[in-house]
Design a protein that fits this description.
This protein is an alpha+beta fold and 224 residues long. The protein has eight helices and five strands, in the order αββαβαααααββα.
Length: 224
């Protein structure tokens, strides 16, 4: 499986210059981050810096990464905006279904309410689990969009039919295609992966703590 696990974890003018040089030396292109060539389009308002998480609800590392994302969100500069791009490359573990589920929730305006709940339904309660907790084998059958519709109806107060109609719509099909194209353009090899400003792909494995990861992301944001 293509999963990436995070390793959890200034004064005069001369002094300021030395501090800046130290910071620049701390984060090394090719080690801590990769410059994307060409840079990719972003999807945030003018003046904002986009921070993308490429993820899947079906990815155990993404589930483990959620506390990190919550801390990152709380510590981002005001001009930064989080964007989520769902990956679909692992059909055996229902990633295409979960991609469709996220984009459906986004289209219905309920993604903020259901995002963490989806992780919990897969990895805590087992309502939408893809792996049997006893045998550790893939469940048969796997979750369906019907089960997702029932879950969204309970969690977000929408109707199951609205979920099903949206999930099967041409608009969501197009969004799924666009998400796949984004993931490919970012050259993402594992999840979770962070992309800053459409220009930089963060190497999670290069940092030693959550604080270092957030410092790196903020530093990349400040370059824009």
């Amino acid at each position: 499986m293509k999963h990436v696990f995070l390793s959890i974890l200034v004064l005069g003018l001369a002094g300021a210059a030395n501090a800046a040089a130290t910071t620049d030396a701390k984060w090394v292109e090719g080690k801590h981050y990769v410059v994307l060539l060409p840079a990719q389009p972003t999807h945030v308002p003018a003046g904002k810096v986009e921070v993308v998480e490429v993820f899947s609800y079906g990815c155990p590392a993404c589930n483990q990464f959620q506390p990190v994302m919550a801390e990152l969100k709380a510590r981002l500069p005001k001009r930064a905006q989080l964007v989520y791009v769902p990956a679909s490359w692992n059909p055996a573990e229902s990633w295409p279904l979960f991609q469709r589920a996220f984009l459906t929730a986004q289209s219905l305006g309920i993604a903020e309410r259901t995002h963490q709940a989806m992780y919990d339904a897969i990895w805590k309660t087992g309502e939408l689990a893809v792996v049997d907790p006893v045998t550790h084998r893939l469940k048969q059958p796997q979750p369906t969009i019907g089960l997702v519709a029932r879950f969204y109806a309970r969690e977000a107060g929408v109707t199951q039919q609205a979920v099903l109609d949206t999930a099967k719509s041409f608009a969501v099909d197009m969004k799924m295609m666009e998400a796949d194209q984004q993931v490919q353009a970012y050259a993402v090899e594992g999840t979770p992966t962070l992309i800053v400003a459409g220009k930089y792909r963060v190497n999670n494995g290069s940092v030693r703590s959550v604080d270092e990861l957030i410092d790196l992301v903020v530093w990349l944001i400040e370059r824009n």
